[in-house]
Structure formats: C-alpha cells, structure tokens
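Q: I'm teaching a short session on how sequence maps to structure, and I want students to see two examples side by side rather than one. Could you give me a first protein with its sequence written out and its structure tokens following it? Keep the formatting plain so it prints cleanly on a handout.
A: Of course. Example one:
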Amino acid sequence: MKKIMIRLTAFMIIPISLFLTSCDAEYFYDNTPPSPPTNVVTITGDNWVEIRWDHNRERDIAGYNVYYNYTYEGRYTLIGSTTNNYFIDYEAVNGVTYFYAVAAYDYDGNESELSYDYVKDTPRPEGFNRSVFDYLTSPNKAGYDFSAYKVLPFDSWDTDFFFENYYGTYYVNVWEEADIQDMGATYDIYDITEAPIYGWVPLYEGENVKYVEAIPGHTYVIWTADDHYAKIRIKSIQGNMMVFDWAYQTVRGERELKRGSREIIPTGESRELRKKY
C-alpha cells in the first residue's frame, strides 16, 4: 500500500548529558484504500444468510463492511461491520432475494470498493427431526407438506411426499405431477446446495407415483407439483417411522437450497453499476 511520508526533525533535551541533540521521527499517513475482498459466497438459512469471503492480505486491515441491495445494480445499504471474514444477516426474510457485497477498510479509515463477486441469496425455511409413518399402517401421518411445515395424510392434495414400508424395503414416494431424486449419502442436509436440472426418477408405466429407496444418511431433492424445490435428509428409519430434516425454497422455480450464486464482474462495471449509501 502506498505511503505518504512526512519527515520532521525534533529536538530532545537529554537531562543527564545536558546537551541538545536531534533525531529524525517518521510519521506515515495512509490515503490508499485496501483492495476489495474476494471469493464472496453465501450460505442460505431460515430467515438468515451468512456471507463469507477471504481475508485481505494487507497488514493494516481493520475490518470489513457488509452491504446489501434488492438488485445487483443500484445503491447498496450498509448492514453491519466485522473484523472476521464472515457476517450473518439475521434480518433476512424467507422468500426475499438479496444481493450482497463486502468492502474492506483500514486503520486510517480508507474503504475499498465493493467486492466484484456477483452474490445473491434467497433464505428459505427448514426444519429438523420431523417424523412420518408408513402410509399402509398410518395413512393420516404418512405425508408431508413443505409449504405448511406439517404432516398430512398421504393422499392429501397438499402432500409433497409420503413414506412407505414395503415388506421391509423403505421408499420415499411423490405423486406423478412431482419429481424426486436421490442425491446420495451426505454429512448433513447442507451438503446439497441446489436442485439438479436432470436425473429425476421416471414415472413407470401404469403407476401414479414416483419413488426412490429410502436410505438413512441420504439426501433427496423434491420438485413439487407447484414448481417449488425442497430437500430432505433421512436421519433414521425405525420400523414404520422415518425421521428426517428438510429445507424448502418458497420462491417458485428457484433451485437454490443453500449457497447463493457467485460470478466475477469486471472492475469497471462494478464501479459503474453499484454504489454505497
């Protein structure tokens, strides 16, 4: 970082030797802003969004300011500051899309431009440790409605999926207007970041449901009949009961289930289209 150096000569009185001497004292004033933070990403939550980025390499970084807007272009509003390389927006509302940008500032009060990463996020509801039961033995407690966050009968118009124990082999079923896909074994439900485009289970001839085998530790993405995406992760299956975590995107057609998208925008374009309040 550039420095403007002001050189002053000071005179000090040394009582012991009783003579005057001079020494040079250098004072540095920094008027160059830091570089913008890089690799900004978001993590989607339930009424919250976490924003993360790489720490700047400059040694005099004092902290970071986090901004948001409802569109990529326009003026961004400051929502908070931090000395860490992450910030959680607890004021985010489910179903609303936010665009985020981060600026670094140093100890002299110089602030960088907004980060050049194109980052947006749409928080969505989620839930943990919900239970459904085999539709053959407990038909009124076998289905789940993501939009209402509740258990329903397996054949309700609002049911998005239902559980089945077929002679000791377990299945997650959706009706023919919906789609489902097994995303494989995952550490937790956050491992699956967005809904896939291809690979949905086909509807077999003569059947009115689509189904995949229910396996504990696997995460499944469901494309509902009313064009919403959701995911469940099976935590356990005990007899006729399946325990699962879930997340549901309230914005129709939005495939994002965890992380926001990120795209690098040319420097000049970033300066021109985005401003800080």
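Q: Perfect. Now a second example for contrast.
A: Example two:
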Amino acid sequence: MHVSRSLLILVTCLGAVACKSTSERIATERPRETPAAYVRKGTTDVAFAVVSDTHFGFDPIGTGHERMVDALNHLEGEPYPRDVRSKWPSNVVPPLRGLLITGDLTERGNAAEWAQFAKYFGPPGAPGRLRIPTFEVVGNHDRWGGPYVETQVAERHGGGRFYSFDWDRVHFLALGEAPDQEGIAFAAKDLAPLGLDVPLVLYFHLPLAGPAAQGWWFADGEYPDRLEALLEHRNVVAFFHGHHHSTAHYRWRGYDVFRPGAVKDGTHDLAVVHITDKMFTLGTYNYDSMTWVESFEKELDVR
C-alpha cells in the first residue's frame, strides 16, 4: 500500500504539543560526533525503537533487514539534528531498551519465514543479529499460514496472544493484529491494578483511522469504542501501528498515533522514541540514507 509521503507528514498539534516536520530541517551532520556519556534524566527515562512490516520471505528484502539491524546496532550516541537538541532531553540517541515491531513479521506466516525472523531477532532467551531485545506483534500476513507465527510470538512473550511489560514507569501493551474481544478483555484485566496516571504505550498492527482502516473487523466493529472507553481518563502517551508501509502521525479520538515506517516497500524509516518525566520525543531515522527525516515532541507530566 502506497500513500503520498507529503500527505503523511502533516501533523496536528493540540494544547501544549509542539510538532515539527523535518521536511523543514535537514538531517544530522556527518561524520558522526563523539558525544559525552549519556546522563539519565529522571525516574522515567526510556528510549526504544519502533519499526513495522518486516515481511520475512518477501523477495528481495534481505538487504533491507541488514541495513535496518545494522543501523539499530549503531544508533546509540548518534547525534540528533541540531535544531531539536536545545529542547529534547538528550543531544544524542540514548541507550535503547528494545525494538517494537508492529506486525507483518513474515510474508506468508510459515515456519521457514519465521526462522529467518528468529535469525535476526533471536529465539526466546537468545540474541540474534540485533543486539537489543525485540517485542513484536503479529499482522494480517502472519496469519495467512494459520496460527504458526502467532504461536511462536506467544511462546516468546509468556504464552498468550497479548502481553505487556514495563520500562521504568511506562507500561507497554502489545495487542497483536488489533485488540479484538479477547484483546480488550486482556487489556482491561492488565490495566485494572494500575493507577490512572501510569503512562501507557499501546501497539498493534492494524490502523485506527483512514481509508485503509475500513473493512477490517477491528476498525468497523464495536472494538474501537470499547477501546476508547477502556482508556478513558488514563495517561495514554502514544499508539503505534503498521500495515501502511509508510510513516505518519495522526490523532485518533484525542490520542497521538504513529506509523513508524516499514522494511517492505516505501519508506525505510524507523522511529526512535524517548520518554522522560517531562518529554515525549520521536525522531524518524532513514536507515538507507542514515539521516533524520522527521521529528515530533510533546510535553509530559509523568509523576
């Protein structure tokens, strides 16, 4: 699926949110600077990367995986564009806790394609070519071959279709292809013991809005309303999803939603996210050109 990149860079800013598209800025300088050691900024200081639609088994795509993993393995300490450094909590990319992958891990959902995924991102409890942990969800392509890939993902992360984890005070909900009845029930039980102020990041594969959302069982049914009701009064920092093979930011029912970029087709981008007590920042990094192409920032109040 291809969407005009010029349209996708449009960002809506509300309240204290400050957004900047780096179609107005040109990316980081080369050669790379030698930064000072990164200093932790507070009780919440979480950096991670997000990418989507790796589509192992789609040929030719191997060189894209190589470039993406190599970029991630060397991003720590990479300088951000100069014009965001005075506002962002760090001048350089801090240590990354892990990588989120928002679905369509494979092209057809079979064992051979999953083996390729595991080579790059590691089997349970073992490293792959990527040096940081991976927290993936399935997409529609992963279900083409039956439940095999979904079963492998479940085994990697505790035995269920859906899972959650915490980095500092930030709570992450991995909700598979999209939060259906079972997923919303899981999220409700998972969130029940948490205070309303706990910062939340939710990620899954299918879109929440736009033409590509129509016709999918998640977007056309009751589930979006149920998800919105579940999250009412909670501190949702961001949603991430894939499926479009492109990058974008939009608002859904008052929440910030991001598409991080894909390995298959289109934009070879990934998102580098940093959440502290006071700020949420996102830089879009193109691993073909090794440049920053977009950025986003907003103030937070994480207690």
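Q: What should students look for in example two?
A: Point them to this: Residues 62-73 form the longest helix (12 residues). Also worth mentioning: The chain has eight helices and 13 strands.
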